[in-house]
Design brief:
2 copies of one chain form a homodimer.
Chain A: H1 8-19, H2 26-37, H3 43-55, E1 59-63, E2 76-80, H4 82-99
Antiparallel strand pairs in A: 1-2
The structure holds a DNA duplex.
Chain lengths: 110, 110
DNA sequence: TGTATTTAATCTATAAAACAGAACATATAT
DNA sequence: ATATATGTTCTGTTTTATAGATTAAATACA
């Protein structure tokens, strides 16, 4: 079976998908990762992760219709599932809980 | 080279280490992961991660002296470095930022 | 019509992180 | 001495993460 917890990149991709409600797709996720975090992910990395998230039931996808824009291939539209939301919340809550137990020295005095 | 970002498990282990200031060690981390999250990690997984974190300069370790407890081998004591603290803060800030942009529908209505 | 351009997914291969548990080491108690 | 407790280190495997080349499908326009 697959892992019970979201990997680091899986969580990032899923957060971006959650942000876009149900109009997310591969290349957009790629761009958004860069805009939101400054980090460059390749389309290959994003796609592999999307496949994995779908297998785990954390997202659902289907091919969009023809665009009214310039041109190009149909998008694979992505939306987060309830299980995906739960997974994000669980991950967040776990870390919030741990941060509360870390002493203040974390805010390093120079 | 290694990855620029903390992996999911790396972050968890580093949070536990931060919590313990400078009295952390392998088996304790193992136990704490279970107590804090309910999740069972093996000592092998923890140790491999400690080695990785040290290579990355996010923690420092050295062997402790003889214990005054029951018995047993010396502990490898672990403490987080400034780079480690920065890494945790960066990871947290990135996610806090993303969460702020996720619509309320995340809190699912039944 | 047909060919260039744009947009985007899919495929192939590799590296890094996560995981499991056996083996080994080093204390103390008796 | 040797049993027991505590803890690290080692070996091997699976899952995630990464990169970028290739393929596909739509529109524009000559």
């Amino acid at each position: 079976m697959f892992k019970e917890y979201l990997g680091e990149f899986e969580e990032l991709v899923l957060l971006i998908i959650a942000k876009h409600e149900d109009q997310s797709y591969g290349l957009l996720i790629c761009d958004e990762i860069h805009e939101e975090t400054g980090r460059r992910a390749t389309i290959g990395a994003v796609h592999a992760t999307v496949v994995r998230l779908e297998k785990k039931g954390l997202i659902e996808t289907d091919m969009g219709g023809a665009t009214n824009e310039r041109g190009g291939r149909r998008k694979r539209l992505i939306r987060i599932t309830d299980a995906g939301k739960q997974s994000l919340l669980k991950s967040r809550d776990m870390k919030v809980n741990l941060w509360q137990k870390i002493p203040d020295l974390m805010i390093s005095k120079t």
